[in-house]
Amino acid sequence: MKLIFVHLFILLAAEQIRSSPTRRLEQFAFEKYLTRARAVLDRVPLIDGHNDFPMSLRDFARNQVGELDINDLTTLEPWASSSSSHTDINRLHTGKVGAQFWSAYVGCTTQYKDAISKTWEQIDVVHRMVEANPTTFEFVTSAQGIENAFSQGKIGSLIGVEGGHSIDSSLAVLRMMYDMGVRYMTMTHSCATPWADNSQVDNPGGVAVHDGLTPFGKTVVAEMNRLGMLIDLSHVSRKTMRDALETSTAPVIFSHSSAYALCNNTRNVPDDILQLVVANGGVVMVNFFPSFVTCSSTATVQDVANHMDHIRNVAGVDHIGIGADYNGITEVPVGLKDVSEYPNLFAELLARGWAEADLEKIAGLNLLRVLRGAEAVRDQMAADGVKPFDEWIPQADLPAESLPCSTGQIKSVKLTTE
Ligand SMILES: *[C@@H]1O[C@H](CO)[C@@H](O)[C@H](O)[C@H]1NC(C)=O
Ligand SMILES: [Zn+2]
């Protein structure tokens, strides 16, 4: 009985707060910011760096996109009751998403096993999702392509491969993935590849396997520069970040990482690295996962905006983007519950006094600049006659655990004098 009264009181008090004049005034002000935010996203494409919807397609629908209506996934099971289902076509439109890097992700357990075939399956499912929904999506592979799709009201759809284990240490596989439209590769996921360390080595007690990038890892960077594929440094160790920033002649991205100074998760970007990103001309696309935003299981749109403020203070507004990590994360900030709520973040920044021109940059212009920069490096290397890097990873760099699933690099050549 007592409990019921307490509940009633809380409800009444909440109602009081909701309808108080100040509260109504705040609401009115926020609506005005929201209207301006939406207008910004009408002018420039909102380009998100990382969405794991293809992983959901695999886990929830066995990649059977032909059978699936993805306009509204709020009532269809198992999507409806999943805590990591944040994306469908209706909500992408409400959220004013202009372009999306769809993640072709397969976990580290596939390394040295079926990583390549599963990655191809995830690349295939993005292509088929786009083909099955041609009035919504357009498959694009360039900055110009993003702009053309946006001007036709389509969501430009790009592919990022999440984890260097997906190429099985083969530059040939990397090149073929580029040919299938892949425009970034995250150098590692949560495991070392035979050529790069991942972020977990920076956790207390963590031990580096390579101390950053190996010589072959640097060749992977060079070949990505030559191809015009963006180097994504989310998930890698600090030393890998440094080595890649030193090696790359093109601007890099962090497709879904926030600021380490505000939350000391090693998935985030430390301030000293932010300085290097300025020199490199790259972009840090802020992740919305509460574990990376507040280092806890809860966060708000204001907390995410704090990361924007921090990166602006340290690196400047030219190096900020958005990589929410929807469908990959299991908790979401209040005010950014799914892809429909991006405009809230822009309204929050307007309320903090950010200029609309700056919002245009973080929405998409920064990423377009970076992609154009990588395309220019590709074109210059071609003009300079740089040939494909075709060395193989040294056999000695391959760990013993990779050997049972390998038939070896070459057949022994039978010498004959006949
Ligand atoms: C982050 O800070 C907490 C509290 O000081 C500490 O326990 C934890 O080890 C730190 N994490 C890293 C990656 O340094
Ligand atoms: Zn990730």
Automatic annotation (TrEMBL):
Predominant localisation class: membrane
Cellular component terms per the entry's GO annotation: side of membrane
Pfam families tied to this protein: Peptidase_M19 (PF01244)
InterPro entries cross-referenced by the UniProt entry: Dipep_AS, Metal_Hydrolase, Pept_M19
Cofactor: Zn(2+)
EC numbers on record: 3.4.13.19
GO molecular function terms listed in the Swiss-Prot or TrEMBL record: dipeptidase activity; metal ion binding; metallodipeptidase activity
Signal peptide: 1-19
Domain of life according to the entry: Eukaryota
Location(s), subcellular: Membrane
Reaction equation(s) it catalyzes: an L-aminoacyl-L-amino acid + H2O = 2 an L-alpha-amino acid
Membrane topology, from the record: Lipid-anchor; GPI-anchor
Gene Ontology biological process: proteolysis
Keywords: Dipeptidase, Disulfide bond, Glycoprotein, GPI-anchor, Hydrolase, Lipoprotein, Membrane, Metal-binding, Metalloprotease, Protease, Signal, Zinc
EC top class named in words: hydrolase
Gene3D superfamilies: Metal-dependent hydrolases
Family indicated by similarity: Belongs to the metallo-dependent hydrolases superfamily. Peptidase M19 family.
Quaternary state and interactors: Homodimer; disulfide-linked.
The name this protein goes by in its record: Dipeptidase
Organism: Daphnia pulex (Water flea)
